[in-house]
């Protein structure tokens, strides 16, 4: 009888006593909690990303095209939010629009204004204002692209050109002037960019001269053959054409060696352009809401059921002159 009771007690103990915790089970539980917390954080970031609606500026370095830089920005924002990810598939689709206004050449650096959400619709109207550039020109050499990336097509002497000569002709390039756009440009013929046609070796005729506006222009430095200009201009203006025309006016030739956009609309390079290490959802959200003039600030759009959305991206590239090109979209 005693043996039977002992067996019952032993059996009861086996049924009720919890299994002892091991380092492995603790680690598994901690990992599960961490994974759950990470998903919550990612969901919150995704909600923020989908709520972004406004305009902000980023700092474009030399090298990438404006479109390539926009891709890089998009990828960083997506990666931070963990989107798209497997758990988001087969759920309601939410499109995030992102685009830039006012293309910068790959060899140029400076302010690139980005629109996100409903902010993409603001780009054309906002960027019709003035732009400011610091350009370093090189006298004595002309290139097919009108900058240092092209092939040299002509060389002329420049040794007799003085600082006074340059300052004396700048007035001719102030106000409303007629300007012929470069052949290597984003302007289109039959739906294709002139620069693309030129690279294929096709014969391309120059676009006719058109009126553009220069609000101010000044010579900042002159160390032959190099000269530095500070230019404030309106939309559709090409600094490369300006430098080339200045060279011709001086009975020589010239091309752009360095180009920096220091201002576009209300955004300046020093105050507003986000460097790449600041391309985060929180920084973008802050700058969407705080850097716009009060009359241009957009209300945040509320995403629908953010936990039931998957992000796709629509790229929009708006040109410097309204109506100059159609809006380009890639999905």
TrEMBL record:
Keywords: Acetylation, Cytoplasm, Isomerase, mRNA processing, Nucleus, tRNA processing. The keyword Nuclease does not apply. Pfam families: TruB_N. It catalyses: a uridine in tRNA = a pseudouridine in tRNA; a uridine in mRNA = a pseudouridine in mRNA; uridine(55) in tRNA = pseudouridine(55) in tRNA. GO terms for cellular component: cytosol; nucleus. The keyword tRNA processing applies. It is found in: Cytoplasm, Cytosol; Nucleus. Its main location: cytoplasm. Its EC number is 5.4.99.25. It comes from the Eukaryota. Residues 1-20 are annotated as: Disordered. Belongs to the pseudouridine synthase TruB family. This is Pseudouridylate synthase TRUB1. It comes from Ictidomys tridecemlineatus. The gene is TRUB1.
